[in-house]
Task: inverse folding
C-alpha cells in the first residue's frame, strides 16, 4: 500500500527512437512493461513511439505527465547527439541537468576494464535530472533515472531490452510495489462466432452498462476479425478471487445472451475447442479442401497434440481431383457445379470414408478475384460436415473481401460447423 504518496493506478509509456517509426524496429519494451504493470494493478492508458526529437519529446512528456500518474520513457539514453531523452525530460519538468561524477567514473571504469579509454561523449550518460534517483545499469553504460514530480513519477529506462528488463525488475518494480493501491487486474477472453460485430455490440450494450455499475466493475473491449469476435473482459480488486468472480458473472451473462454462438469462455482458440471436443468424444477428423487448399488442416494441426484427432486431409482443387481422391461423382459436379452443397457433402463424406474417420469436413468455394458468376459470386463458399453420427449438414456462405479474406473466413466457418456438429448434434 502507498505510504505518504497517493497510489499510482495509471501509466503511459513513451518509446523513444526514430528507428521504430519506419518499421525497421518494433517497440517491444512497452509490451514487456505493460505486462508487469498490469500485474501490479497499474493500467496502461496510452503508449507512444516518438522520434529522437528534443522538442517533440519534451512536449509529449509534459502532456503525458499532465494526464497520468506514472510515465515510463524508454530509450534515448545513449551518448550520441540523437540521444535526447535526459535533456527533453529535464526541460519538460523545468529541472536542471547536472553531471554526476560517480556515474561518469563508473562508465570510465567499464571502458578501462575492456582496455579502452572512455570517449568524452560518454560523459552525457552521467547527466542526471535534478532530484532524480539514479538506477544502476548492471548490463550497459546508461543508468536509468527515477524522478518524483509532485505526486507523480517519471522513469527513464535504457532502450535495449537486455538492459531495460533487468533494470525494471530490480530497480523499478520493487519501488512501484510500494506505491500501488494493491489491486490486481484479472482478464478473461470470450470468443463468439456466427454474429457480426455490430449485432454482437447491440446485444452487449445493456450488459456493458450493468457491468460498469457493479462492484467491482467489469470492463469489456470487443475485437472482430477472421470471422469471429473476441470479447476481452477485465476486472480489478485487491482480492483477485473477487475480480475472477465478477468475470465469471459477466461470462455467464454473455453465454445467456449468445447461447451456441459462444465458442469459448477461457481464451481457447476455435481450433483448440474443436480439438478438445474431438478428443473428448474419441473422434478423428478428415478434411477435404478445395478453395482453402490445406488451411483448415494447417489450423487444426497448429495445436500441439493434434495427432490424437486429426486423421488427414485432401486438397482436391480440380474436379478431377475431387472425383479421383474423394469419390465425388462427376455427375453431381456436372449437375450442380463444383461450388454447391451436393459437392461439399460428397467431399465431406468422401474424406470420411477414404480416411476412415468419424467426422468429415468438405469445403468448396470461389475465393476470387475471378471465377464468380451472377448466381455464384466471388465469396460464395460451401461447407459440409459429415458426422459424428449419420447426420450431414451443409451451408452456403457469402464472404466479403479479398481472396485471402475469403479463404480465412472459410476456415473459421468450417471449423465452427464442426464444433456445432459435435457440441449440438441434431
Ligand atoms: P544505448 O546506451 O545502447 O545507446 P539507449 O537507451 O540510447 O541505449 P537506444 O539508442 O534508444 O537506447 O536504443 C538502442 C537499441 O535498443 C535500439 O537499436 C533497439 O534495438 C533497442 N530498443 C530501443 N527501444 C526499444 C523498444 N522500445 N523496444 C525494443 N527495443 C528497443
Result:
Amino acid at each position: 500500500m502507498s505510504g505518504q504518496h497517493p497510489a499510482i493506478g495509471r501509466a503511459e509509456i513513451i518509446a523513444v527512437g526514430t528507428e521504430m517509426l519506419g518499421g525497421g524496429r518494433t517497440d517491444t519494451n512497452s509490451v514487456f512493461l505493460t505486462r508487469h504493470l498490469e500485474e501490479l494493478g497499474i493500467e496502461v492508458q496510452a503508449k507512444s513511439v516518438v522520434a529522437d526529437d528534443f522538442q517533440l519529446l519534451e512536449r509529449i512528456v509534459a502532456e503525458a505527465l499532465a494526464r497520468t500518474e506514472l510515465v515510463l520513457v524508454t530509450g534515448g539514453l545513449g551518448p550520441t547527439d540523437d540521444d535526447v531523452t535526459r535533456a527533453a525530460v529535464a526541460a519538460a519538468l523545468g529541472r536542471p541537468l547536472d553531471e554526476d561524477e560517480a556515474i561518469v567514473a563508473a562508465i570510465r571504469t567499464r571502458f578501462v576494464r575492456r582496455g579502452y579509454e572512455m570517449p568524452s561523449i560518454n560523459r552525457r550518460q552521467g547527466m542526471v535530472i535534478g532530484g532524480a534517483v539514479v538506477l544502476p545499469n548492471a548490463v550497459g553504460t546508461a543508468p536509468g533515472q527515477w524522478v518524483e514530480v509532485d505526486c507523480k513519477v517519471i522513469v527513464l529506462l535504457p532502450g535495449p531490452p537486455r538492459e531495460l528488463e533487468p533494470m525494471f525488475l530490480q530497480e523499478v518494480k520493487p519501488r512501484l510495489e510500494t506505491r500501488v493501491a494493491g489491486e490486481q487486474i484479472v482478464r478473461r477472453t470470450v470468443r463468439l462466432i456466427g454474429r457480426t460485430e455490430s449485432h454482437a455490440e447491440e446485444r452487449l450494450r445493456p450488459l456493458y452498462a450493468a457491468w460498469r455499475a457493479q462492484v467491482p466493475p467489469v470492463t469489456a473491449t470487443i475485437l472482430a476479425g477472421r470471422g469471429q469476435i473476441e470479447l476481452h473482459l477485465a476486472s480489478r480488486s485487491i482480492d483477485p478471487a473477487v475480480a475472477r468472480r465478477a468475470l465469471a458473472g459477466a461470462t455467464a451473462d454473455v453465454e445467456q445472451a449468445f447461447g451456441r454462438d459462444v465458442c469459448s469462455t477461457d481464451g481457447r482458440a476455435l481450433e483448440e475447442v474443436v480439438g478438445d471436443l474431438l478428443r473428448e468424444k474419441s473422434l478423428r477428423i478428415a478434411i477435404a479442401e478445395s478453395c482453402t487448399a490445406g488451411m483448415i488442416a494447417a489450423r487444426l494441426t497448429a495445436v500441439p497434440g493434434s495427432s490424437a484427432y486429426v486423421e488427414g486431409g485432401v486438397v482436391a482443387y480440380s474436379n478431377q481431383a475431387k472425383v479421383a481422391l474423394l469419390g465425388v461423382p462427376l455427375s453431381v459436379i456436372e449437375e450442380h457445379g463444383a461450388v454447391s452443397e451436393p459437392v461439399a457433402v460428397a467431399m465431406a463424406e468422401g474424406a470420411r470414408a477414404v480416411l476412415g474417420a468419424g467426422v468429415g469436413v468438405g469445403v468448396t468455394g470461389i475465393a476470387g478475384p475471378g471465377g464468380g458468376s451472377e448466381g455464384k459470386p466471388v465469396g460464395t463458399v460451401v461447407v459440409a460436415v459429415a458426422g459424428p453420427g449419420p447426420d450431414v449438414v451443409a451451408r452456403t456462405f457469402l464472404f466479403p473481401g479479398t481472396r485471402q479474406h475469403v479463404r480465412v473466413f472459410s476456415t473459421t466457418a468450417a471449423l465452427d460447423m464442426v464444433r456445432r456438429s459435435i457440441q449440438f448434434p441434431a
In short: The pocket of adenosine-5'-triphosphate is lined by residues 15-17, 19, 25, 27-29, 74-78, 83, 140-142, 158-161 (CB under 6 Å). The CA atoms of residues 236 and 299 lie 34 Å apart. The chain has 13 helices and 17 strands.
